[in-house]
Amino acid sequence: MACEPNRARLLCMLSLTFGFFIVEVVVSRITASLAMLSDSFHMLSDVIALVVALVAVRFAEKTQATNKNTFGWIRAEVMGALVNAVFLTALCFTIILEAIERFTEPHEIEKPRVVIGVGAAGLLVNLLGLCLFHGHAGGGHGHSHGGHSHGNKKNKRGKMSKFEKPPGSSSGEETNNLVGNHSTSPNGDSLEVQMNGNAPYEELENAHDSASQLNMRGVFLHVLGDALGSVIVVVNALIFTFVWQPCEAGAPCVNPCTNSHCTDHQHVNHTLLGLMEGDEPNATDPGGLGLTRAGPCWVLYLDPTLCIIMVCILLYTTYPLLKESALILLQTVPKQIDMHRLNERLRGVDGVLAVHELHIWQLAGSRIIATAHIKCHDPATYMDVAKRIKGFFHDEGIHATTIQPEFVTVNSESRGSLCELSCRTQCAPKLCCGAVDAGKQTAAGAEGRVAAATAAVPATTLEVISESQENANKDQMPNVQVVVRSEPQVMVTREVESSL
Amino acid sequence: MLPLSIKDDEYKPAKLNLLVKISGWFRSILADKTSRNLFFFLCLNLSFAFVELLYGIWSNSLGLISDSFHMFFDCTALLAGLAASVISRWRSNDSFSYGYVRAEVLAGFVNGLFLIFTAFFIFSEGVERALEPPDVHHERLLPVSIAGLLVNLVGIFVFQHGGHGHSHGGEGHGHSHSLFNGSVGHGHSHGGHGHSHGGHEHGHEHGHGHGHSHEEPHCHDEHSYSPAKGSSKQILQGVFLHIVADTLGSIGVIISAILMQKYDLMIADPICSMLISILIGVSVVPLLRESIGILMQRTPPSLDHALPECYQRVQQLQGVYNLQEPHFWTLCTDVYIGTLKLLVAPDADARWILSQTHNIFTQAGVRQLYVQIDIAAM
């Protein structure tokens, strides 16, 4: 499967990074260098990011639907990407805070040679990781699908799914059902399936790839951040080694760069500095005082500056990933789909009177799901219309659709802009969206609902309702009392024809 | 187009537009009670952070300065919650066919992630400090932590009707940690990371996201038409829980400071930090689990039992052969969306089946249902 190399890479990188983390911890204990210890915690956060990505990949491989997760776990990839992006952002903030602290209180690096050694090793590990993940993540800017991944990925998944439902006819192929074979027996279905049979396999991998690309991008960015950090560590240590003149132990020395808060030293510093003011600034042995001055101060400020530059780079590269995964999770219409145009074209399909409650969203990768209410004339012609609609969506690259038909009860001038099956008026706050048209719709819908009511509904209501159904199109707010019924009990009677 | 007069609406200098936009946001924030409270609490936190920063600069205490920076960092989470509560009220448009209501779930999730990150760093810092205990200057931090406690008590009073029990004491965020902030001459590069601060309540926002997730994020209220109220109830609950936890943490810091002053137990501080970070991590888990469930399009847990029954009822309708591919998911709290396909006999009354199905599921609580009718040919 296409995901195998991903997993292998992740595992490999994970073990490398974890091993390096252990090494750093040990070295930090040996050399009693706190900087090393803190760097090791950075490595640990890297390990965590890799673990998150690995978990996401493992979960996303289970694309079969389960009882609780009817869509399968494919969204795990997007979540993994989001988690990694958020961690990266938090890490960036932390680094900024650290850098600011360093600006106010710079301190020298202890044991710079050890730091160089360990930093170089870390850089190697990170570069290796970059190579591992680069090929995969480099291709994926955004979701790399033109919205036309044909073949029915969901189709295939539906086939694999073990449902608790009786096998029934079509084992859940959506498009195939309606487009080809609703009229034939299950055998026909499987035939159709087999025709598309080859395509789904590749398409499935495609879908998987484009979804997992998001995840891998998150990992790549994390490793990139780490690599940059290692580069900074090494560069800083190198410059420190060669440029900085430290205070030698044993010789009286003053360090003008760090204003230590130790009260006992403050006097001395000020006095000494004051004495030294008159001499040349950079002399190592100003006058006859026998004092050495610790090396150029700007070296100490190099570290925080580089850190801030690195943070800027990281934030710049992380932001698109964050935005993309967040948008998917917010149930946005995928960017390649123009909702307005699609709506218009859908309305232009033969036999479609009206379209409402059209929702299109992205499950993950190139799996796009659409739902809509389609108003059409009557059930007899419905299946043809349904076929055409499914074909239309297929052309747009949306293969998982659920179309609810609504049949007009009154022909002729019915504009059909009102939903016949929307909820009652008091549901308005509970609907997902569009409080504006909810009012109109629920009014019309209330009648439609009530029209199928039991005898409990007074006859007058029925009359009013049927009447208002005819009037509804003329946008009158009829005297439809919102029938505040208690929970509808047994609905026995059939829908009332409005030809009353 | 040339403006006809200076008051012509079509001609507006860009700056005024920005002001108009900002004032629009303010109005939107102040319109809803939750966001109003959140906003004021955010302001309170921010001002406290500023005061601390100025005090730290004036008294030249690095610990206080870094602590105030951390408080600013925490305020971003509170800001995220505020932004989410405003954004989720925007109307749906072409790109967001469901509107923006999911923003709250996402904000809760992100806040939970930040909390975990914070816990991780407090833990790491606790470990570091345990291995190499720095000097402690606690005389300056006690008044600050007491001030923080007072701020939190204000918060409790304001967000009073929030809470029911959820792990308290979890959100101390290593207040004890802050005691070490005043330390000096400690070549520790991570100084003042994670959450160590002058023992006051930061991370209200953490709690905010945290509590935010206590139950499922409410998008709409049961009892009123205004969609915002339910969500505010939820956020308030979260903030309240968090503030309670922060208060307890503050008290813990004060106690720990007293312990250190009286009995000189230096090891108490890192141990406290580690304990607190573990508690934070554990308490965030329910929040994360819930938001992950919603974001992964999981079947709503509250419908887990009702749905099979509904399926059976639908399948018993006259003319229905089979029910296929049910998908039910949560858009945001209490808003469930479902799709399913019915295989029906050719002579069945499609309209009747449709309306019956809708009724059945409405009783279960799913108000947005898409039923696809597939007519089997005989």
UniProtKB/TrEMBL annotation, chain A:
GO cellular component: endoplasmic reticulum; Golgi apparatus; membrane
Main subcellular location of this protein, as a coarse class: membrane
GO MF terms, alphabetically ordered: calcium channel inhibitor activity; zinc ion transmembrane transporter activity
Subcellular location: Membrane
TM regions (residue ranges): 12-35, 41-60, 81-100, 112-133, 219-244, 298-319
Name used for this protein in its record: Zinc transporter 1a isoform X2
Pfam family of the protein (one): Cation_efflux
Compositional bias (Basic residues): 142-160
Keywords, alphabetical: Membrane, Transmembrane, Transmembrane helix, Transport, Zinc
TrEMBL record, chain B:
Annotated segments matching region Disordered: 167-228
Pfam families linked: Cation_efflux
Compositional bias annotation for Basic residues: 187-197
GO CC term, one of those recorded: cytoplasmic vesicle
Domain named Cation efflux protein transmembrane: residues: 38-296
Catalyzed chemical reaction(s): Zn(2+)(in) = Zn(2+)(out)
UniProt keyword annotations, A-Z: Cytoplasmic vesicle, Golgi apparatus, Ion transport, Membrane, Sarcoplasmic reticulum, Transmembrane, Transmembrane helix, Transport, Zinc, Zinc transport
Entry keyword annotation includes Transferase: no
Residues that span the membrane, as ranges: 37-57, 69-87, 99-121, 141-159, 239-259, 265-288
Bias (Basic and acidic residues): 198-224
Coiled-coil zones: none
UniProt subcellular location: Cytoplasmic vesicle; Golgi apparatus, trans-Golgi network membrane; Membrane; Sarcoplasmic reticulum
Xref: InterPro entries: Cation_efflux, Cation_efflux_TM, Cation_efflux_TMD_sf, Msc2-like
Domain of life, source organism: Eukaryota
NCBIfam families in the record: CDF (TIGR01297)
Similarity annotation: Belongs to the cation diffusion facilitator (CDF) transporter (TC 2.A.4) family. SLC30A subfamily.
Full protein name: Zinc transporter
UniProt source species: Chanos chanos (Milkfish)
Source lineage: Eukaryota, Metazoa, Chordata, Craniata, Vertebrata
